[in-house]
Amino acid sequence: MKKYIQSYMDKVQGFMDLDMKDADIEKIREVLSEFEIKITYFQHERLIHLIVTVLFAILEVISIALILTNPSVPAIILSALFLVLVVPYVMHYYFLENSVQHMYKMRDQILEAIKEKRSCKP
Predict the structure, then answer these.
(1) Do 42 and 100 contact (CB within 8 A), yes or no?
(2) Is the pTM for the entire model greater than 0.85?
């Protein structure tokens, strides 16, 4: 998913950097429409990962509480396994969150370009 998101953001950024100045307003709107749909997909992905991350974080806290109340080797192993899962989930969620927020800024730039094109029409 990381590669897909990064690749798509690079594609849109390339359009913004190279083609948007010369593109007509309809082409920009077309790119914006597709971009907004993709943002929706990525927001959904972000929400699912947030739910999974919170679930594993809660399980980690419960397993730590179990260790504190009844220390045992299985409880320690369980806690370690949850920790091994929580860390990558947090890192992936961090990437998703930052990517979606960056896409919001890119969308704003595209909208600004549309406004400029409209105001420059003869």
Answers:
(1) yes
(2) no
CA-angle at 75, arms to 72 and 76, nearest 5°? 85
Does the pLDDT at position 37 exceed 80? Answer: yes
The answer on pLDDT for 122 being more than 70 is no
Whether residue 61 is contained in a domain is answered as yes
Give how far the C-alpha of residue 11 lies from the chain's centroid of Cα atoms, to the nearest Å: 16
Residue 2 in any domain: the answer is: no
Using CA atoms, how far residue 56 sits from 62, 84, 91, in Å, is 10, 10, 13
Are 110 and 20 spatial neighbours (Cβ–Cβ below 8 Å)?
Answer: yes
The residue range of the domain holding 84 is 42-117
Give the SS3 label for residue 122: coil
